[in-house]
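thought: fold this chain, then report.
action: predict
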Amino acid sequence: MGLNVLLAVVAAIVALWVALLVVFWLARPKGVPVRTVVAALPDLVRLLRSLVTDATVPLDVRIVLVGLTAWIVSPIDLIPEFIPGLGPIDDIVVAVAALRYVRHRVGLPELRSRWRGSPEGFSVIARLLGGEVGPAPGPGNRPE
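observation:
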């Protein structure tokens, strides 16, 4: 009996994970090259550090970001890293879900104000997080 329950739970988790992968694959922004995303990662890490260390950011957001960091550095994965092409997918799915939650709770304008990278890098990250990206603040388009 115990083994059947365990197998059923594992099968349900795998089915849910496959469903999430399909949803994220269908919802991914089109036309965002992987190279461009990778180039924006150092600035994204600085943004996340800024959010985690700021006491004015809601506690749930900081907890989600600490959990995301723990998930990514953890050697335990749903899909083992040694499987070519599939290994990092679980980390990517969790990262996108956590960062979309952060965007929803904190807001894109707040994330933009903390961004220290290029406007193009923020545009790419915002598109991945499902946010609408307007023109970056600059000398010619600052609100009056």
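thought: worth noting. The helical segments are 2-27, 34-52, 59-73, 89-106, 108-114, 119-128.
final: tokens above.
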